[in-house]
Structures are given as C-alpha cells and as structure tokens.
C-alpha cells in the first residue's frame, strides 16, 4: 500500500491551502486540530459518513495543512501549524479568528466533548504545540 505524504513545508501552495479551506467541515477540522493535539480519526465528531471524512482529511493532507500517521489499522491526524506559520505567517491565525467569529465549522468536534475550537483556544489564537 502506498503511503500518502503531505508536501514538504517549502512546497505548500497558498492556492492549495485556500482551496482546502473552502469547506466548513474542513475549517471545523482545522479548528479542532488547532490545539496542537494529534487526534485519532475515530475521535473526530463530524456530521458526515466515514468515507466523506476520509475525503476531507485527504484534501487537508494533500494541501499540506495536516499530517496523517498510521499505526496498525488506526489513523491519526495533526495540524501542521508551525509549517503553515513559517510558510504563510499569520494566515492560520487569521483563518481561525474569522472561523471563530462566524462560527464556521462549529459543528465539528471530538467524541464526548465540546468542539475543541471553543474548549481550548481563545478566538483567533492558534495554540499549536510542538
């Protein structure tokens, strides 16, 4: 099986990033992942089928926004916040701030909890851990 890899940091394209963020589900996923924690796909609470979630996560990965890691049959995803901030300073914070203000993607969260965007972050401040 071919292992899918996100682009290298210097190959992340602004057009690809903006294109990937043109969907409320994907913006919601970025909001959830903005706390810097790696999440198992099964932890993500989204109002779509698993195959559609897989598509959204692939779009985010292919654009360089997230990184996916497979461990056995489980997949984990994390935001590439540092890479994005180096490549496009301030972009992620601006997107997250606007998404918080307009509640874009607010219906996406984690199983058993509030959407992480509301629970762990101040609006507009991407708290991405190393």
From TrEMBL:
InterPro entries: ArsR-like_HTH, HTH_ArsR_DNA-bd_dom, WH-like_DNA-bd_sf, WH_DNA-bd_sf. Residues 6-103 form the HTH arsR-type domain. SMART domains: HTH_ARSR. SUPFAM superfamilies: Winged helix' DNA-binding domain. GO terms for molecular function: DNA-binding transcription factor activity. This is Transcriptional regulator, ArsR family.
């Amino acid at each position: 099986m071919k292992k899918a890899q996100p682009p290298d940091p210097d190959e992340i394209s602004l057009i690809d990033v903006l294109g990937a963020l043109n969907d409320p589900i994907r913006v919601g996923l970025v909001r959830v992942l903005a706390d810097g924690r790696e999440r198992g796909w099964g932890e993500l609470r989204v109002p779509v089928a698993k195959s559609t979630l897989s598509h959204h996560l692939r779009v985010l990965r292919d654009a360089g926004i997230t990184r996916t890691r497979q461990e056995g049959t489980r997949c984990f995803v994390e935001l590439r916040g540092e890479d994005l901030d180096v490549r496009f300073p301030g972009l992620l914070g601006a997107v997250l701030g606007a998404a918080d203000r307009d509640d874009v993607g607010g219906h996406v969260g984690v199983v058993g909890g509030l959407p992480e965007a509301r629970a762990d972050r101040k609006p507009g401040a991407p708290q991405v851990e190393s």
